[in-house]
Amino acid sequence: MKFNIRPALVFDPSLGRIGRVTPSWPVEPVPDEYGGRAQVGPIRREAWLARREGVFSAKEEDWLRSASLRWSGQTLVLVDGTGKVLRIPLRPEAVEPSPLADRPVELILLRELPYGEVEYELRILLLDAEGRCLLTMPGFGIRPGDLKEFAAAARLRFSYYMLRAPVWEISRLGLAARMFPRHRRHVRLRLGRHHWSLMPPPEGSPGSTDRGRI
Predict the structure, then answer these.
(1) pLDDT value of position 207
(2) Which of 110, 119, 208, 211 keeps 20 to 30 A from 22, CA to CA?
(3) Helix (H, G, I), strand (E, B) or coil at 157
(4) Buried (b) or exposed (e) across 169-186, using 16+ Cβ within 10 A?
(5) Cα–Cα distances in Å, from 107 out to 26, 137, 141, 146?
(6) pLDDT digits (tens, 9 = 90+) for 143-169
């Protein structure tokens, strides 16, 4: 008989706003200076490894085509699968207004397996100095090592968490939500656009013109 024994989670009360599980990769120290230009984005082969069937949804295809994280040397530029662009100035002397409620100081890559699911979900979080989550975006197809180097260039602390929800946890209401409480002005970036069915409605029915996708 085989038993699926999960390693015990080690909780550190000194991390974050209310304490956190110790990350799989420890928080990296912020470098003394900002790095040069840097960019990361989803890699199709990396995304394929996360999909057992090797088939991507329409939203995932949007993400693979469009998404990126760029560091200009002064500003963090995030693009999601819908084409939405956020420009987040990080240098103290920046005069450009930020779309976030506070200045981000930490970048988190969260790899979580919700209870009852067979595929992990990857999310990228930006946290403020108090450990509140300012922004969430998908991390589908992005390699942890690439994101770690990107965070260093932008002088953001970086942690990589691999969580597997126990049976009593409810996805998005459990451990991760408590570790990374959302700011009341939390911003979410999307995997992709909402796609209508490409099957045409019956002839003569209301709205029988081609709606395509939005």
Answers:
(1) 35
(2) 119
(3) strand
(4) beeeebbbeebbbebeeb
(5) 12, 11, 17, 12
(6) 999 999 999 999 999 999 988 755 445
pTM, to two decimals: 0.81
Number of Cβ within a 10 Å radius of residue 33: 7
DSSP letter for 202, please: P
Q: Which residues pair with 127 in a beta bridge?
A: 106, 133
N- to C-terminal Cα separation, the chain: 51
CA 74 to chain centre: 21
Rounded CA-CA distance 121/26 in Å is 20
Dist CA 120 CA 110 (whole Å): 10
User: What is residue 8's predicted lDDT score, i.e. its pLDDT?
Assistant: 61
- Quick one: three-class SS letters along 21-74? ECCCECCCCCCCCCCCCEEECCCHHHHHHCCCCCCCCHHHHHHHHHCEEEECCC
Residue 85 · residue 79 · CB < 8 Å = yes
Q: What would the two tokens of residue 138 be?
A: 């998908």
> Do 110 and 176 contact (CB within 8 A), yes or no?
yes
What pLDDT digit, counting tens, does each position of 59-73 carry?
999 999 999 999 999
